[in-house]
Amino acid sequence: MGAQPTEQPIDRSDDLDGYLEQVRLRRAELGESMGALEGVLKESVADLAHWQERLRAALLEVHHDLVTHIEVTERPGGLYDSLREEAARLAGTLRRLQGEHPGLLAATDDLLARVAEGTEFAAGELTAVTAQVKDLLRRLGHHRQRGADLSFE
Prior knowledge:
Helices cover 74% and strands 0% of the residues.
């Protein structure tokens, strides 16, 4: 949706440990926003317009955190570049992780378009939207797990 993170960019030049700690914090933020999105799915939809607004707010937060994650990992000199330099054997895994970013961002953008402010979807659309959100959460969860696994390699 074009939202830009408001945080200052991470300066990797300070020290690697500090940089990695900031990467972990950003990863945790994404996990928290995913948890909030999952929480919305558990809420009552008796007031569909209110539920849709809560869903939109949670999706905006996930989108923001995903954009930040992509910037931190993909920017020149970022995490992925550093890992490619230090452990060439991880290049394939890094390519796969990086290759997932456009699809995750597109799925988030698509959901945001479906629940855009001022638009209402019919109760019949609720099942499809909920399934789409669950699929996004599943994909984000797998992506985060593969990223965590990478840190142990």
